[in-house]
Q: What sequence folds into this?
């Protein structure tokens, strides 16, 4: 994992030692707990956004499906699918 950042074992130990000196042994568990909660909240927010996008995609697919299944005799079918062999009426031109 640390190879991604170009860090070896000695560099990681040095960083951990500096961290220990700066914050002290008593503060590290609190810091780790806060970091864990932050990661948990981030994953939760990511999951919620993904679910919302999925729901919106399904709703859009359903609305497209409903638009394609308009009954042939209904007035909305006339507007949705104008006949190409006849000139457009003023109502269809908008």
A:
């Amino acid at each position: 994992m640390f190879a991604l950042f170009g860090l070896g074992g000695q560099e990681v130990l040095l960083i951990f030692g500096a961290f220990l000196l700066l914050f002290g042994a008593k503060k590290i568990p609190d810091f780790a707990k806060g970091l864990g909660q932050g990661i948990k909240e981030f994953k939760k927010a990511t999951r919620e956004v993904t679910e919302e996008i999925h729901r919106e995609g399904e709703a859009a697919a359903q609305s497209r499906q409903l638009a394609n299944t308009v009954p042939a005799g209904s007035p909305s079918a006339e507007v949705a699918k104008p006949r190409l062999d006849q000139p457009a009426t003023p109502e269809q031109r908008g």
Helices lie at 9-23, 27-68, 75-80, 90-93.
